[in-house]
Amino acid sequence: MGRTEPKVLNMSGAKAMESDKLDRNPGSGTAEDGASTKDQPAHLNGCVPLSHQVAGHKFGVDKVGILQHPDGTVLKQVQPPPRGPREMQFYRTVFAEDCSDPCLLDLQNHLPKYYGTWSSPDSPTELYLKLEDVTSRFNRPCIMDVKLGQRSYDPFASQEKREQQIRKYPLMEEIGFLILGMRVYDARRATFDSYNQHYGRGLAKDTIRDGLARFFHNGLCLRKDAIRASISRLQQILHWFHSQNQLVFYASSLLFVYEGLPSSFLSRPPVTDAMMKTANLLLVGDGGKAIQEEAGLENKKEEFNNNTAVAVSWDGGLSTNHRTDPCGLRALLHISRAEEMAASVDRPPVLNDQNRPANGNSNEEEDEEGRSGTGGQGSAGDPEVEVRMIDFAHVFPSDSQDQGYIYGLKHLLTVLEQILCGAAQNS
Known about the structure:
The structure is a single chain. The chain has 427 residues and is of the alpha+beta class. It folds into two domains: 20-131; 134-347 and 368-427, D-amino Acid Aminotransferase, Chain A, domain 1 (2-Layer Sandwich). Helices cover 32% and strands 18% of the residues. It has helices spanning 20-23, 83-94, 102-107, 159-168, 172-175, 197-201, 208-213, 224-243, 263-266, 273-284, 288-295, 329-332, 338-344, 364-372, 403-426, and strands at residues 48-49, 66-68, 74-77, 114-120, 123-131, 141-148, 177-186, 191-195, 247-249, 252-259, 301-305, 308-312, 385-390, 395-397. The strands form four sheets. A five-stranded antiparallel β-sheet has the order 1-2-3-5-4. Strands 8-7-6-10-13 form a five-stranded antiparallel β-sheet. A two-stranded antiparallel ribbon has the order 9-14. A hairpin with a 4-residue loop joins strand 7 and strand 8. Pfam families: IPK.
């Protein structure tokens, strides 16, 4: 039995944007300017695989992958019809220069900025969406991709597709969201822990809270400031969904990003591997090497993320072993002073640290908040956090509210609030 082809977004009133690959490029020059890099394969035209991608199709593994342009933007290859053209039309509609719809104008605030399309001169028929890299302003971006909604297939999906998606995560309808992947900066070890889609699918109703809390734990403390800021941004997105009845979203995600580097380190020179090793030796003497190996400080692959060299695990899953503690929370409660000591090795004292008393003492709450602050452009009450909606290959017109997405958002907010409440009770 044939399926009815879904309606597409109404493009009436929007200017033709066939040339938008040049019209909306950020920075100086066109989308192609500065794209030639001798160190990269010619067919990529200076672009490289996105190093900090946590979910979705990866370039070099899948045919359709994510790249990073030399100007810092993200290139998402347009998928085959109808998904790719549908997502491209969605971005073009929302970011049309003559857009006057208050609903869509408000939606722009919750999406990565769209800069048109891009294609390599070597493969002009392969189109990419040119998008803002929302992680670019972070030093050590902690990133999480969460799929939202009660089902991850659209109304026009085949029965086979429906059954496949349900098998992947049978609890989607009840929980309303699924962690697709994440990477978390461990400030104690100065490394990233990576989690893939299997981590999220392994979370049940009784473990979803601890599983989500892991994203906000930096090895030293629970980043309550990042949770609060994430809740605030989710509430803004929820308000948008309550105010609109034009669009319905399936298999769409939220991208969470927060600054993983403690604020005390953002104001200091960078901590090098040699300094970390020296600090560990000062802490444990001859046992320093064992501590380093256990913490994964050696044999880590370095990546250049936003022009910053960082160590990261590329095993596709959790890079540390927590067999005896599935969520690893007990292990995370052990606070190492290695990075703190490393920051002071062979350095003069910091004289402009006005947040710490002259005697170097502070109460426990102040110390925790100081470690978990983010510094940078935000103040102590406004940490560096981003929450953006992404992935729009299954967005359709509607005449009612998107109850599935709203359900997922509300449950996600509830779980985050429970994490904060639990932290307050344990403090």
